[in-house]
Amino acid sequence: MTFLRVAAVTLFSATLSSAVQAQDISLTSHDGKVEVTGTLLGFDGEFYRVDTQFGELTVDGSGVTCDGPACPNLTDFVGELRFSGSSVMAEKVLPALLMSFAEQEGLSVTSRQPAPDSLIYELHQDGRDAPLGRFYFDIGNTGQGFADLIADQTDIVMALREIRPSEQEAAEAAGLGDLTHARRSRVIALDALVPIVAPDNPVPQISPADLALVFSGAIDNWSALGGPDAPIALHLPDVGSGLAQGVEDQLLSPASIDLSDAVIRHKRSSDLVQKVIKDPFAIGIASQAEADAARALPLTGGCGHVLMATRQTIKTEDYPLTSPMFLYLPKRRLPRIARQFLAYTQGDAAQKAIRNAGFVDQEPEMMRIGLQGDRLANAVASGGPEVGLEELQRMVDTLRPMSRLSLSVRFEAGSSRPDAQSRSNIQHLAQQLEAGTLNARKLVFVGFSDGDGAATANKRIALLRAKTVRNAVLAAVETAIPDSVELQVDAFGEAMPMACDDTEWGRKINRRVEIWVQ
Fold first, then answer.
1. What are phi and psi of 184, to 5 degrees?
2. First vs last Cα of the chain: how many Å apart?
3. Which of 64, 177, 384, 446 could form a disulfide with 27 if both were Cys (CB 3.0 to 4.6 A apart)?
4. Which residues neighbour 448 within 8 Å (Cβ) at sequence distance 6 or greater?
């Protein structure tokens, strides 16, 4: 996109208008010497986007006069923003954030639902007839959100997963650029995929390996899981749902198995939960925030570790099936009210609104080592055989005076690149350090590993990961860290496993960098 201010308009001939007939608008400089004619693509209250014979131009509205049937009303301009994608984000998360944003800005909110799959929210300012902003929500699923963005039918995608390579290729072909760039996506809230059953289902827990086999159809009777002799009914969200695609990406693909054809699909997560609650022989995978009256099954492994989806385990990614909520943003400039709202979603007030809506926020939390008895018990019970008492004692002595920060870092499978939630955590930590809100004198990036291989090699790799994360945080800092804050690295390798090493998901959970503060 070319950015054109009045000073640059002189590059174009004043005869441009004669070459293009019957277009939507003409933009004329105040001295009347320059005119740009074309089809209006958008106006954000400050800049015009115009499709001309020279391509798409962006023109500063303060230096031109607009003439034509498509010219916007400058007096009562309404900033508009369209969202498409995840139904849970459209119906719960974004409205909660909008309401909180409006309260902070002294605005009032009205809403209406013109169709079952759409919502419209308007922000109003006292003394102004027209709305200040209008936000459209197309309620669908993550896959549809990306399709709408590629087709230029929405501004922002609401996604419960990262963009897939095929979608990125289509976006680039449509001229949308690299949506994987840090400035093109952001995590606004956290959630998790949880297996749910009816409250009276007797099965107490399930391993991820068995869960994958259940949804592949290889295990089709509850008796194989220690339950009654009854067939298992399978429930998942619709095919294009980010939750359903998360099940494929995080649960089935690592096990190299396919989804059963017997799965019952649901357009809304709330419908899925209700169906499972009413059927004692059903199992589904749902959003942790929407599990409601269903019973969430803890995940367990052969070595006895049990992991529940809680606020803290989702924040730290100690629970393996986390599901960050993304917004994917356009390359073009958005209206001011939209930019203000998007900036608000990353602030402290937004984190409170997210918690109040029942989802997991990204605000850092402190956890003293004394509150982590299970983790220490796991360290003793199932730490690698090469980890001696001396190293365990060193770990406890090192960590005892400190608190663990909830912003952990884990890595993509087979890669040293932090996963999506962890990349967001790195940005948040950098912002906290810049703002001086951590109230910490020392931060220690502590590396841990799985137990596959020699303990000495694992400890060395864990230390390298810790240094990599520390350097990534420093690179993300845009101003400066207070001189009073000291950043250190340490590593304990396989000394404190979070999960069993007998599966790939367990090894992935164990490979991590924790952040401890004092």
1. -100, -10
2. 47
3. 64
4. 462, 491, 492, 493, 494, 495, 496, 497, 510, 511, 512, 513, 514
The two counts, helices (H) then strands (E), for the chain are 18, 25
* Sequence letter at residue 443: L
Give me the sign of the Cα torsion angle 355, 348, 79, 76.
Answer: positive
H/E run at residue 394: helix 389-399
Q: What is the pLDDT of residues 176-199, one digit of tens each?
A: 999 988 889 999 999 999 999 999
- DSSP assignment of 412-460 equals -TTSSSB-HHHHHHHHHHHHHHHHT-S--SEEEEEEE--SSS-HHHHHH
Residues with Cβ within 8 Å of residue 218, at least 6 apart in sequence = 257
Residue with tokens 């649960």: 251
List the strands of the sheet with 486-493, edge to edge.
366-368, 403-410, 512-517, 442-448, 486-493
CB under 8 Å to 503, separation ≥6 — which residues?
A: 207, 208, 209, 301
Q: Say how far apart CA 209 and CA 12 lie, in whole Å.
A: 64
Tens digits of residue pLDDT in 401-452: 889 999 999 988 767 788 888 988 998 898 888 887 776 788 999 999 888 8
Taken in order 147, 152, 154, 158, the sign of the CA dihedral is: positive
The Cα 275–Cα 284 span in angstroms is: 9
Cα(255)–Cα(258) distance, integer angstroms: 9
